[in-house]
Design brief:
The structure is a single chain. The chain is an alpha+beta fold. It has a single domain (3-123), classed as 2-Layer Sandwich (Nucleotidyltransferase, domain 5), CATH 3.30.420.100. The protein has 4 helices and 4 strands; from the N terminus they run αβββααβα. β1 (29-34) and β2 (39-45) form a beta hairpin. α3 runs parallel beside α4. Pfam families: Ribosomal_L18p (PF00861). Belongs to the universal ribosomal protein uL18 family. One of its GO terms (biological process) is translation.
Length: 128
């Protein structure tokens, strides 16, 4: 399958999901985007269209943890990094008083990095 067709199919799946999921002030939407190398997550209040909390694998806090693990000789896979992003996102959300979210997987399968991010967020204290 050509890459542009895969992207178009994901976008259509995401549009179907977004018809049903809407983030409110009490229960904002946790939106996930993954590229080949990075993963991004943000918590959005759709009533005003504002991002409340964001985190990605490029965030300095995450990059430092990855660097420290590599210095210790440990190799972090992309799934491990996604789990870490979920944990850090949950910590930041709880600091802002957010405990419940609705999960928007962005048209991706609930598998691999997307699943790891969700589990990390749950471990960090978010309820889906």
């Amino acid at each position: 399958m050509r890459p542009e067709v895969k992207v178009q199919k994901r976008i259509r799946r995401h549009q179907r999901i977004r018809k049903k999921i809407f983030g409110t002030r009490e229960r904002p939407r946790l939106c996930v985007f993954r590229s080949k190398k990075q993963i991004y997550a943000q918590i959005i209040d759709d009533t005003v269209g504002h991002t409340l909390v964001a985190c990605s694998s490029l965030t300095p806090e995450i990059r430092d943890r990855i660097r420290e693990a590599r210095e210790r000789g440990e190799k972090m896979s992309k799934i491990d990094i996604a789990f870490l992003v979920g944990e850090v996102l949950a910590q930041r959300a709880r600091a802002k008083g957010i405990t419940k979210v609705c999960f928007d997987r962005g048209g991706y399968k609930y598998h691999g990095r997307v699943k790891a991010l969700a589990e990390g967020a749950r471990k960090g204290g978010l309820e889906f």
